[in-house]
Design goal:
Oligomer: single chain
CATH class of the largest domain: Alpha Beta
CATH topology of the largest domain: D-Maltodextrin-Binding Protein, domain 2
CATH architecture of the largest domain: 3-Layer(aba) Sandwich
Number of helices: 17
Strand content: 5-15%
Length: 438
């Protein structure tokens, strides 16, 4: 087994998109130099490219899995290439151009990868779902999340996530608050009580991806999923629904709900503020449960949903859940489908997927099919999977439907809504300009 850890400078997403476009052009003219199978002395070589680092728990799991697979399958060697998530689309795009792309890619369904299948950079794995014996392996929601509008399955689901509100009950109780807020009136009132005790209410890393996430929460709470999806499709933030979302965000900002420093905070800053007891509320995902257990496991944290305004079309406080990492098959991988099939089947064997989930990752497998060790999993991981589905209204982040270019622009423009004194007109202009980036 070969392990390769690469480190590259971050490049703009548009570069990756251009690379893929060039790759498609080359493929159309038949210039690819890839061979039917990479063999040496009768050995078939499988290559993977993943967003994990080789030293991370997931990277170690993949390396261990590959070693076990090689022992069980003499004649097949596995080489794992690890690269930073921000670099992976460009790295993979260049390999497509060269015709030497890895056989299997493990990355998220966001940004440039959402265009891979339509550009011929990966293959539709729906045809393999049944023939590889995986048709009963995944939850229905996981398969839906990875299926595009043409009914094609873009990748096999591997890692899911949930993304709730975190409440520091110790700080809330110190301020005379017994339960997390369920309504905006309670949220605003509780924020004032928390400030009176010297604590910031809601830490938002608004100079980073939490900004569009919180705006999306506000949008779902104010106008519901259907209308918010339409707003994200049109980008018409000056219409009635757009203004409701903007006005709602500014209402919370001006009522002192968000941390005073939110506009300058990034994701690590919001986590640090919450973990240090400087802020009582946080919107963070399952990727943070392990860190919480290790860094501030002494805090009394309760997970829940984002509170609802009066007249909300949603019936319970809101949390997010969805799919992050999937197992994509490349054109080269399809050329050695027999070996790739064996590796993918091995990956999704119960014992191997259970080992992955027991690291603290949220599995897309059907409920009850894995032997999870609740004694060793992070406490928040277990609680989230037990409590959030019944206590919150669960949505996928609506902005996942945006194009890679608009997504990047939306992330940058969202910060404006958390800047003190920024007007609705200024926020509207920033958001509409983001949609013009398409």
């Amino acid at each position: 087994m070969t392990i390769i850890q690469t480190s590259r400078t971050i490049r703009r997403r548009s570069t990756a998109a251009a690379v893929l476009a060039a790759a498609v052009a080359i493929a159309m003219t038949g210039c690819s130099t890839s061979t039917t199978a990479d063999t040496s002395g009768g050995t078939t070589k499988i290559t993977t490219l993943s967003l994990y680092s080789g030293s991370s728990p997931a990277g170690k799991w993949l390396n261990g899995l590959s070693a076990d697979f090689e022992k069980a399958n003499p004649g097949i060697d596995v080489s794992n290439d690890f690269v930073a998530q921000t670099d992976l689309p460009t790295t993979y795009g260049k390999s497509i151009v060269a015709g030497n792309e890895q056989d299997i890619v493990m990355t998220n369904l966001v940004g440039d990868p959402t265009t891979w299948l339509q550009n011929g950079a990966t293959v539709d794995v729906k045809k393999y779902l049944k023939s590889w014996g995986l048709d009963d392996a995944f939850s229905k929601s996981a398969l839906q999340a990875w299926t595009n509008t043409k009914g094609q399955l873009q990748a096999f689901p591997l890692e899911g996530y949930n993304w709730p509100m975190w409440y520091n009950m110790g700080l809330l109780k110190k301020a005379g608050i017994d339960t997390p807020p369920a309504t905006w009136d309670e949220l605003i009132s509780d924020s004032k009580k928390l400030r009176d005790t010297g604590v910031q209410p809601f830490a938002v890393g608004a100079a980073d991806y939490p900004a569009p996430a919180v705006i999306t929460l506000v949008g779902l709470a104010k106008i519901g999923e259907k209308r918010l999806t339409k707003l994200f499709a049109t980008g018409d933030w000056s219409d009635a629904d757009g203004q409701k979302v903007i006005d709602g965000t500014l209402q919370l900002r001006d009522a002192g709900v968000f941390d005073d420093d939110s506009a300058g905070m990034k994701y690590p800053d919001q986590v640090a503020a919450f973990g240090a007891g400087k802020a009582a509320m946080l919107f963070d995902g399952s990727w943070g449960y392990g860190n919480a257990a290790n860094s501030f496991g002494n805090l009394d944290i309760r997970l829940g949903g984002f509170p609802l305004p009066s007249g909300s079309p949603v019936d319970k406080p809101i949390s997010f859940a969805g799919q992050s990492t999937g197992v994509w098959i490349s054109p080269n991988g399809e050329k050695k489908a027999d070996a790739v099939k064996k590796f993918v089947q091995f990956m999704y064997e119960k014992k191997n997927l259970t080992a992955f989930a027991n690291l603290g990752y949220v599995s897309p497998a059907k409920t009850g099919t894995l032997d999870l060790d609740t004694k060793t999993l992070p406490k928040l991981n277990v609680e989230s999977q037990e409590e959030l589905p019944k206590d919150t209204s669960v949505f996928q982040p609506t902005y996942n439907s945006l194009s890679p270019t608009v997504t990047s622009a939306f992330f940058r423009a969202s910060t404006q809504a958390f800047v003190k004194g920024a007007t609705a007109a200024q926020v509207t202009q920033s958001l509409e300009q983001a949609w013009q980036a398409n």
